[in-house]
Write a structure and sequence with these properties.
The chain starts with a helix and ends in a 20-residue tail after the last helix. It is an all-alpha fold and 537 residues long. Helix 7 runs antiparallel to helix 12 and helix 16 packs antiparallel against helix 20. It is 75% helix and 0% strand.
């Protein structure tokens, strides 16, 4: 054997690989660090809003712009990140995003008022929005088709586990230190990620040649396309995030942004389809497999992000859990997901992805249906196990969807494809949260009215309940006061029952949606794995 052959790595070295001569699995770990940090920030601030509002002397409604501003900026950058990576260079763009995200995180922690915090969160969202798409396209080009499932399983630990860890970590930091630390922790992690990316991630020569060729032809920026993307997704994010609290289209503010989102989206489609070098390649949706994967990722985002918000909200408001304890209720689900990821990565190379997706949706549907047995006596174990059942199914969706999205696509389209898949996940998450909160609000009112209608003086059950309550309070209060307290207690119980029933309605709705989607993956084209030849073969 020659010296050159002896030095040949045991892994496949693909022409567009981001690993170069380094171990690609090590590079996959490095790329996941920054994404974990970014996805963590989409959920970590949720449990700290009350503390942020109190510290900055603003209302709770005003503090929600801390979340909205980040999501809007991220939504705008996500779809154009593929084009930006092709112009700037994939590795360079990745490092720029990490640096922007890290510096703006420190600035968020130092913000003296709400206005400056919102500005820094916009910058943070712009930096974070470009991370996941470019890193996923790097993985798609670094690993051959037969290993992509395992690679995305490793990377998926960051994308799926981070929203689960976020509320726990955010609650602990807020309870024991201060809300500033939910941003400060990004500093050392960001610096570490920058060093490792510079050291281990490689920019392939073929990508550099493509970038130089594009610049040599003259850089024609699709400014109109960029403006339409920013208006459509930015306006949509504002509508989804603020719609519930502003009573949807009864609000002129929401109606205005809804019209902006719709009009700009309708203009975006013909404009981008007519460009030679569009900022967003909508032609990819003409491929059945890719379009189906994007639709399924949309559903995964809706279920993952909405349930991650619903459970802590439920246990804090109705079961009086602290922020830390509510986060701990989600932690077993994160551990279950961490165990499932490598298993699904192994199975993805042996079982057709469409079957894994169908099973995953079925598991998610059953897990959401399990939560419909929610009652006023539900304990910590009920919520923890409910989350575990759900997270067992999510890796069966996330990994096959990602690995199947790139099947049959030209290699030069991986950046754009990755951007669109991540747009689907984030927009799906926002729509899922918005849908859940809308159903909660409407269903709670319906159940409250129904339960109240049953409390009629002629009802023997109501009279017995009232007399028992009066008897309890008579031991500590005068008869008139005892009667008032009894009425207040009955109203409180009715309100709690209405809230629990509204959560059950939401869980049932997501169970039905997941069950209806279970057959959809079977429409996917059967992937045709290709083994890239080693250089020199």
């Amino acid at each position: 054997m020659s010296d050159a052959a002896a030095r040949q790595p045991v892994w496949d070295v693909l022409p567009r690989s981001a690993a170069g001569n380094h171990n690609p699995w090590l590079v996959a770990v490095v790329l996941s660090i920054a994404t974990f940090m970014e996805v963590l920030d989409t959920s970590i601030a949720n449990v700290s809003l009350r503390n942020i509002a109190g510290s900055l002397a603003v209302s709770l409604d005003e503090s929600t712009w801390v979340l909205t501003s980040y999501l809007v900026a991220s939504a705008v950058v996500l779809p154009i990140s593929g084009w930006l990576a092709g112009v700037v260079g994939r590795k360079r763009f990745n490092m720029m995003c990490i640096a922007t995200f890290t510096v703006s995180s420190i600035l968020c922690a130092m913000a003296p008022n709400l206005q400056s915090l919102i500005v820094f969160r916009v910058i943070q969202g712009a930096g974070g929005g470009g991370l996941a798409p470019v890193e996923q396209s790097m993985l798609a080009d670094t690993f051959p088709a037969r290993q992509r499932g395992q690679a995305f399983a490793l990377y998926g630990l960051a994308v799926i586990v981070a929203p689960t860890v976020g509320p726990t970590l955010g609650g602990w930091l807020t309870d024991h230190l201060s809300w500033h630390w939910i941003f400060l922790i990004n500093g050392p992690v960001g610096v570490l990620a920058l060093i490792l990316v510079q050291w281990l991630v490689h920019e392939p020569e073929i990508l550099e040649r493509e970038r130089r060729a594009r610049l040599a032809r003259g850089l024609k920026v699709d400014w109109i396309g960029f403006l339409l993307v920013a208006m459509s997704l930015g306006s949509l994010e504002i509508v989804l995030d603020k719609g519930v609290e502003d009573d949807w289209f009864a609000s002129r503010f929401i109606l205005t942004f809804a019209i902006m989102a719709l009009v700009s989206f309708l203009l975006l489609i013909p404009w981008e389809l007519s460009r030679e070098d569009p900022i967003v390649n909508l032609r990819l949706f003409g491929r059945r497999q890719f379009a189906t994967c994007v639709a399924l990722m949309f559903a995964v985002g809706a279920i993952l992000f909405s349930s991650t918000q619903l459970l802590p909200q439920l246990v804090q408001t109705n079961f009086q859990y602290t922020a830390t304890l509510s986060g701990l209720a989600l932690m077993p689900g994160g551990l279950a997901m961490a165990l499932m990821m490598p298993l699904v990565g192994f199975l993805s190379g042996r079982i057709a992805p469409r079957y894994l997706m169908a099973v995953g949706l079925t598991v998610v549907a059953l897990s959401m249906w399990h939560l419909t047995s929610l009652g006023p006596d539900a304990n910590f174990g009920f919520f923890a196990w409910g989350r575990v059942y759900q997270t067992v199914g999510l890796p069966l969706l996330f990994i096959p969807i990602l690995s199947s999205s790139y099947v049959g696509l030209p290699q030069q389209d991986t950046d754009q494809a990755s951007a669109l898949v991540n747009v689907a996940r984030n927009v799906g998450g926002s729509m899922g949260i918005s849908l859940a909160n809308t159903v909660l609000a409407n269903s709670e009112q319906i159940h409250h009215n129904y339960l109240t209608d049953q409390l009629v003086p002629s009802s023997p059950a109501y009279q017995l309940w009232l007399q028992d309550a009066i008897a309890q309070f008579s031991a500590v209060a005068a008869p008139p006061d005892a009667q008032l307290r009894a009425y207040a207690l009955i109203e409180q119980v009715v309100q709690q029952q209405a809230v629990l029933l509204s959560y059950i309605d939401v869980f049932a709705l997501f169970a039905i949606i997941a069950a209806m989607l279970a057959p959809v993956p079977l429409a996917l084209l059967r992937p045709q794995p290709t083994t890239a030849p080693r250089p020199g073969r």
